[in-house]
Design a protein that fits this description.
The complex is a heterodimer of chains A (415) and B (294). By secondary structure, chain A is of the alpha+beta class. Helix content of chain A is 22%, strand content 32%. In chain A, strand 16 and strand 17 form a beta hairpin. The chains are: A alpha+beta (415), B mainly alpha (294).
Chain lengths: 415, 294
Amino acid sequence: MTDLALRVEQLSKRYELGTREPYYALRDSITRWVRKPFQKQTTNINAQNPHVWALKDLSFDIPVGEAVGILGHNGAGKSTLLKILSRVTEPTSGKATLFGRVGSLLEVGTGFHPELTGRENIFINGSILGMSQTEIRARFDEIVAFAEIERFLDTPVKRYSSGMYMRLAFSVAAHLQPEILLVDELLAVGDAAFQKKCLNRMGDVSRSGRTVLFVSHQMTAMKNLCERGLYIEQGELAYEGTIDEAINRYLDSSQPIQQINISEREDRRGSGIVRFEELKITGPNGSERIAAGDELTFTFRYSSRDEHPRRLRFLVGIYDPLDTSLFRLDSDKTAELDGTLPPSGTITCRTGKLNLTAGSCYINIAVLAEGQIADHLSHAAEIDIQPADFYQSGRCFERAETLFLLEQKWSHDAH
Amino acid sequence: MTTTPEQSWTSPPTETPNRQPIEIGPSSRWSLVDWQELWRFRELLGMLVVRDLKVRYKQTVLGLLWTIIQPVALMTVFTLFLGRYIQPADSQIPYAVFVLTGLVLWQFFARALTEASTSLVVNERVVTKVYFPRVLAPTAVILAGLPDFLIACLILLLFLIGFGVWPGLAILSAPLFVLQTFVAALGVGLWLSALDVNYRDVRYTLSFLTQLWMFASPIVYPAQVVAEKWGVAGTLLYGLNPMSGAIEGFRWAVCGTGSFPITLVIISAIVSALLFITGLYYFQQMQRTLADHL
């Protein structure tokens, strides 16, 4: 029998819906307590506040040395699972047993203090991540060399460029030597070259005999790094098996467009003369699945306080997760939709091929009336662009390599 | 094969993996502190203290001078305005020394409370991402106040010598009262830091609370005033303030005169211990779901 690295038994985590609020005021608690001094506390936990189960009866075993990818949509419970395993929060019920030292990379640079120098931060951050002073001293030179910050070792990190900061932070984390490594999406930070560097490192780790639990949205990376996959759906284990099958399950269940019901959103900017009521983004043939190279259709429903709203100008901004503006759709630039529109109606915009690599991007929308912002919604929707066979070759670029896809033809001339 | 720095990460695990497995589950309501675990994390405690000290002195121009200016300035103010009206219990001690003795210990306590109460919220990024016994956060900031306290003690010593007050053998017991102050500060600090996570009004009331508390402690007046006015019952009640016993005891130890305030010291010591135990218990309950609340 192979040795177990990790055993999870019926792990559940319940969140009271109230507890995620920023804070309570002490006086509220006191008044509540004063009002019902004689009321007995109910023992039935379900009868209390509204709650959600972030994880429900999750059970699985992971043998020593295996690299496992955890897949699931946002809110499925992946991060909660990693948080419980790294002991940041406690489960509500169930048990997890870890056979060996655990290192968790839920974030790099944890505990970095801007006023302290690189050298001081290496020691403090390493210590927080669970390394002993002896270990840090033994690997100090390696950490510094890997981060390429020798010259700035005694400079406060607040003077570092963000690249240097990330390199140092990652380098400290990379020299942690746990038996079980938990990794969250952290690798999706920094520039493309840095991401690639991190991914390579992860590859080495998963081949080195360590047990790795890896949460990511980058399917290709998961495919390369992991042999096994767990697919979690609404806090429950929906599939356990090969990584390829887990990815298939994940993709099949994908709702690539996550749109919040925008009519209920209150965080708007603008005069409110015109208001967005509904936004729909669809791929070819009205499908909700959007893949690299698809043509998109944006459909807005709007309403206006004005009888004859004049000179309406609709704008759509498409951004990558790092807030870089990728594309802009603007009814003014194409000189369409000129003139007066009815007080309510539907606007449609069709685009050309969405030449983006697989990954997520998000949408801001705005409408201007006579040059003034009438309604503006940031993060109106998020699109998870699925990988596609863009070049009809079975191969395609990844996000880490490029954001955009350019159609290309290669040939050679014989001379 | 090239030897690149990244090899350390890819080399097989060096430590024996057959350590005692770590079990994660909902902890029982009655679980108290895991002392063995705390011992294992002692290095981290040291690092947190060092971090706090370094950061504190890097961000100030005057640095250490602050720890001297504050008690001396307050001492001057109190001596000028109150020195005429309040006669120290033992007339051999000048009022300035009397006040300074109280202030030195009080400032250690007050600073400990302020820093400890926000220690979890300030370290939010660490607390929500990495595990360590949370008790270390308030403990570290309180320990980081000790160097300041020791420097203030040196100033006190200078004043004692300057005013010709010679401490006797009783000074050897002074560390006991410092320890009591530490325990009381940690107890209240644990309560406040855990409360601060859920109730952010804690921080708004804290400066008000410490001000009131200061005048409820025998700093600018001797505890004897309370005994003279309200008798034994008054003294017993007064002892419920852990700082009244600590400051009176400390003053007795340092100035080496007067009678030992036994009633106050005993009651205050018991209250300090109770605050510490209940604080630890409440904190422990809080720690389980801390990260969900921050």
